[in-house]
Design brief:
The complex is a heterodimer of chains A (315) and B (441). By secondary structure, chain A is mainly α. Chain A has helices at 14-20, 28-62, 74-88, 101-125, 128-151, 154-164, 173-196, 204-209, 214-236, 242-254, 259-283, 292-314. Chain A is globular and about 60 Å long. By secondary structure, chain B is an alpha/beta fold. The N and C termini of chain B lie far apart (60 Å). The radius of gyration of chain B is 28 Å and the shape is globular. The chains are: A mainly alpha (315), B alpha/beta (441).
């Protein structure tokens, strides 16, 4: 994390970074370090942790290693409702949060609607169907977004596409605070939930046998994971792959499926992978900044493949 | 020898050379006319003799052959008269040359015009009444990708800027060019700012053929256009599909890629490209000359005023989308007496750079319009608080595009240059209210 403060599109000598860190918001270099890089680094850690924990929760609930907020359609729904607010002007009112309020509430609403649908369907058909329904709903909301784009003014479409591209470049102290106010309690809730759903390690049937209220578990998991995903999309945009690769790296490093260990470790690996990706996004081709999703894939995939092949060889 | 004497002699020499060139040009035309006249007279005399022989013939068995011979001679005469017409048109000054644009070319050959369009396709423009033999001759000579009979009467346009350029020509010379447009690829994707356009759609004179990237081909074919003017985006799949589909359907299309020009005048010069298909390139040439003079005069006015540092970008989530170096915008800023602060930066960069160069930024053009961009400096700072580190923002020298900038700005290039020059050097343009830029309060 500390190393990330030395990287950026503007070169600032390490000694200068250390000299201004934490107090100087007046000089240009001080403002770049404290006003731009520091909230960005913290934002990448919080956002990455949120996405990876959301992915871990879904993977535990569904006992499916492919589950993540994007696969389940949560992200597509959040983007669709973001588009409704941005492109059509249909706004879902919540008090403004650091200038992003309307988009935050719209994204959360989208995530909540899909989550409710998933829960309703899974209550009737079981957890396995959550994945299938999620994929299907993802396509539906993806199509909805395409229709919104087709009908919207071309100038607005450009801004919408740029606004949904994931980047931590826009994380200011205000937005970090607004995001953290929701994400940190949700992460804490996820940690607590990981203890509650530990019987899921052997599947939902086994969990039910142990006396766990599986319906309540489903509701809680989907609700917490949806909030985490929606907050990241609203404040940062689409950041793919972290929800998938974060839990996998944790699982391979730990060698266990235990939820109470997987969830906290995923927060760490998700945060670190996202931070590393963001470092690369802003320093590989300065002053060009690459899209974060491209880099999370570039960073995450080799690590994942290396871990998988190592485990295969050891096995 | 005094300098003034040298200048006088030089002027006299230039005048003498000009007179000589003019004299030889006129002499060429006159000698061509004389030669052709003599030839025509000879041919007519021969024809008379032929007719006399036909009349006096008792058997008449060779009448068919003689008639064929007469017809071929008449056709030869017609071709020579066509060439004469081309020569006369050239002598009368209807030819225009391309000075700045890099994306198309225009050449004349007797009665035909040869245009190379934005995709390097050769397009042969021939008069509507040109005979098949002559057409075959010129097609053989140029092997064109497309032959267009001109002036065109049923045109479909694919961009609002094309509509704007024709509207400007109509406004200046009352040519009625927009009356020869039958369709536009619009798709209701944006609002119109060009006067009269919405009425043309609502009363049915124009048909909306859908999105420019994916038009409704059935509607397009139903319009029976004699020319479709498209634009292309390299590497963009929809663009490649559009071209492929038009080829398959045999729709006559040309590629107008004005947006790829790197210079302000180069971009505006595409007015000649459009005009040539309507046969009014002489008017387009006159309009271009007028705009060129105005642009260069504004540039000359600010040349010694000292450069003003200009930033030109928009920001989404802290990512900066700046006008790329060496672009049309870069040239516009240069002509207006500015120095582009992001001339070394690719299209996308980070907010750190904006802060680093914040104190050097005299003027910020925020690349958005009042409908889609910030409504005030407070609004701008609310969406991106770190712009508070930019001096132009602190001093209130932030400008947006006017709502009609993207449609009309390029058709009124001289006003664009004047506006920006006035923004950068207000003391030299007192009383000038920018037409295409809006100051953020």
């Amino acid at each position: 994390m500390f190393a990330s403060l030395f990287l950026g599109t503007v070169h600032i000598p390490p000694g200068k970074v250390l000299a201004v860190l934490g107090w100087d918001f007046q000089s240009v270099d001080g403002y770049i370090v404290n006003g731009i890089r520091l909230p960005r680094v913290l934002g990448a850690l919080v956002g990455g942790a949120a996405l990876a924990v959301a992915g871990a929760l879904y993977q535990i609930l569904l006992r499916n290693p492919l589950a993540d907020p994007y696969v389940l359609g949560i992200a597509n729904a959040a983007i669709f409702f973001y588009g409704l607010a941005f492109l059509v002007g249909i706004q879902v009112g919540l008090p403004a949060l650091a200038g992003q309020g309307i988009y935050v509430s719209s994204s959360v609403l989208g995530a909540a609607i899909v989550s409710a649908l998933l829960l309703a369907l899974s209550a009737r058909y079981g957890a396995l169907y959550v994945l299938l329904f999620g994929v299907a709903l993802g396509f539906v909301f993806g199509a909805g977004t395409q229709i919104l784009i087709a009908l919207a003014d071309v100038m607005k479409v450009g801004a919408f596409v740029l606004a949904t591209l994931g980047t931590f470049s826009g994380v200011t102290w205000d937005r970090l605070l607004a995001m953290s106010v929701v994400c940190l309690p949700a992460l804490a809730a996820a940690l607590a939930l990981s203890l509650y759903i530990s019987p899921y390690v052997l599947g939902e049937e086994h969990a039910a046998v142990t006396g766990l209220d599986v319906r309540a578990a489903r509701v809680l998991v989907v609700a917490v994971a949806s909030v985490l995903t929606a907050m990241v999309i609203a404040y940062v945009g689409v950041v793919g792959f972290v929800g998938l690769v974060g839990p996998h790296i944790s699982r391979l490093l730990l060698g266990t499926e235990s939820p109470q260990r997987l969830v906290p470790t995923s927060a760490l690996t998700g945060g670190m992978v996202t931070l590393a990706a963001d470092d690369m996004a802003r320093s590989l081709l300065p002053p060009l900044e690459l899209p974060i999703t491209a880099v999370t894939s570039l960073v995450g995939v080799p690590v994942l493949i290396w871990l998988l092949t190592r485990r295969h060889v050891q096995g | 020898m005094k300098l003034s004497n040298i200048i006088n002699i030089a002027v006299l020499l230039v005048l003498a050379v000009s007179i000589y060139i003019l004299y030889t040009s006129i002499a060429d035309v006159r000698s061509s006319i004389s030669l052709l006249t003599a030839k025509v007279e000879d041919e007519i005399a021969e024809l008379r003799a032929d007719l006399a022989r036909i009349n006096s013939s008792v058997l008449g068995s060779d009448i068919e052959d003689r008639l064929t011979d007469v017809e071929s001679k008449i056709e030869g005469l017609r071709r020579e008269l066509g060439e004469l017409g081309g020569l006369i048109r050239g002598a009368l000054g209807q030819r225009v040359a391309v000075k700045y644009a890099a994306g198309f070319s225009l050449a004349y050959d007797g009665p035909v015009k040869v245009v190379v369009d934005g995709e390097n396709r050769t397009v042969l423009l021939v008069p509507r009444d040109m005979g098949e033999d002559d057409l075959a001759f010129y097609v053989g000579k140029y092997s064109p990708d497309l032959v267009v009979r001109t002036p065109v009467e049923r045109v479909v346009l694919f961009s609002a800027t094309q509509v704007a350029l024709l509207a400007r020509l109509d406004e200046e010379y009352r040519l009625g060019l927009l009356d020869r447009v039958v369709g536009v690829a619009w798709g209701k994707a944006y609002r119109w700012y060009i006067p009269g356009v919405e009425e043309r759609f609502s009363d049915g004179r124009w048909t909306d053929v859908g999105y420019a990237s994916n038009p409704n081909y059935e509607l397009l074919l139903k319009l029976r256009p004699d020319l479709v003017v498209i634009y292309t985006v390299p590497g963009y799949e929809a663009s490649e599909k559009l071209v492929q589909r038009l080829e398959e359907l045999g729709v006559p299309y040309v590629v107008d890629n004005e947006w790829r020009e790197d210079t302000v005048l180069g971009r505006f010069e595409w007015v000649k490209f459009l005009a040539v298909f309507f046969g009014v390139e002489d008017r387009a040439g006159r309009l271009f000359d007028m705009v060129e003079r105005a642009v260069l005069s504004y540039a000359a006015k600010v040349a010694d005023a000292g450069p003003v540092n200009v930033a030109w970008f928009s920001i989404y989530r802290g990512t900066v989308y700046a006008a790329p170096p060496g672009s049309y915008v870069h040239d516009l800023i240069r002509l207006a007496g500015g120095r582009y602060l992001y001339g070394d930066v690719p299209y996308v960069s980070g907010i750190e750079l904006v802060v680093k160069r914040g104190n050097d930024t005299d003027v910020l053009v925020y690349a958005s319009s009042p409908e889609f961009g910030p409504s005030s400096i407070g609004d701008l700072l609310s969406s991106e608080p770190r712009l508070g580190e930019v001096r132009a923002v602190r001093e209130g020298r932030v400008y947006l595009f006017s709502s009609d900038y993207f449609q009309l700005g390029y058709a009124y290039t001289e006003l664009l240059v004047r506006d920006l020059a006035a923004i950068l050097h207000p003391s030299l343009f007192q009383g000038v209210e920018p037409r295409f830029f809006v100051r953020l309060e």
